Amino acid sequence: MAENEDGTEKTEDASTKKLDDARKKGNLARSKDLSSAMLLLIAAASLYATGTLLARDMSFVFSLNFILDRADVFDTSKMATHLSDSSIAMIDSMLLMMLILFSAGVIGSIAIGGLSFSWEPVLPKLSKMNPISGLKRMFSKNSLVELLKSIAKVSLVLGVATFVLNIYLPEMLEVPFQSLSIAVEHAIDITIWAFIFVSCAVLLIAVIDVPYQVWAHKDRLKMTKQEVKDEYKNAEGDPQIKARVRQLQRQAAMRRMMEDVPKADVIITNPTHFSVALKYETGAKGAPTLLAKGNDFVALKIREIAAFHEIPVVQSPVLARSIYHHTEIGQEIPTGLFQSVAQILAYVYQLKQARLFGGKPPESVPTVEVPEEYQWNGDF
């Protein structure tokens, strides 16, 4: 099981964020054996497919360079001509082979882990120059595994090569006694099949190595429980900080709400537990709007501001509770409460008229009826 530098066990699978960060840094699951196996197998397959073309080109090159006229031997300028003709003769088969091998190398490298471009792995790091860290890497579990893999690969390839050599040895001994074209074709055929057998041996190693590399990559990226908690805090925010932000947001909203209370036309109260501040624009098409609402301490504060600005405060417990629970700040009151609020506003209008022009104010607050579906049956 993976351990942290401080000895803490890494028991948790890597998070999506850590996997993404590792990918950006070029830290992906890779198998060199898979890349080598694919390269060898595709090379063997391409040799098998283009063997005839390669044999023809090589026969031409051998004939051109080993069967010489007497005049060519003493003419040094012919060397350049022979080199040029040989290169042109081999370019079609060799270029095709190189393109196939290049594609095989790329595909083998990204077969597991996918494609990723990053400069992180090649950047110089002082930690890599630390001899103590280097010794730790040399004698680490990963180094031991790589050593055992190397021994297994050499042993397996050597064994397969010996087996193939024993099979094809009689045919190989016959090659020097064959004509040039037949010898070249026969030698290429032996080489191709030997190549295929050796490639299959390397593929066997890759089949074992790929699952191990995937497991080892996941194991290296495992996290401790504390790392998971820290990452969650960084991603979602520290709960204490989030609570503080919410508190500040509530305080800001409360200040804005209290600043709107002086604009109200009437404050309707429970009378002690709830207060709602309403405003109605005379001549407006809409319904009265809720400017502020609160319970307990906030309700008391609304009433204090209303008293300071001489805003009428009307006690109507059922209506106050209904508006508080069915209307949000900044919204118009529900349609079902229009008539009840209209009675309160008419009462407030009469009070204002009496104060401004004299006269007898209304004797008492009108008793308003609230539709049953808007009545609040909870506490208070």
Cα-to-Cα separation, first versus last residue: 60 Å
What's the helix count?
12
Instruction: Report on the biggest sheet.
Output: 4 strands, mixed
Order of helices and strands: HHHHHHHHHEEEHEHH
Spans of 5+ residues with little confidence (pLDDT < 50)? none
User: Structural class of the helices, strands and pairings?
Assistant: mainly alpha
Task: Please outline the helices and strands.
Blueprint lengths: L15 H9 L7 H35 L3 H4 L4 H33 L20 H8 L2 H34 L5 H41 L4 H12 L2 H22 L5 E4 L4 E6 L9 E7 L1 H12 L4 E3 L1 H10 L11 H20 L23
For the structure shown, list the relevant keywords.
mainly alpha; 4 strands; 63% helix; four-stranded mixed β-sheet; 12 helices; 380 residues
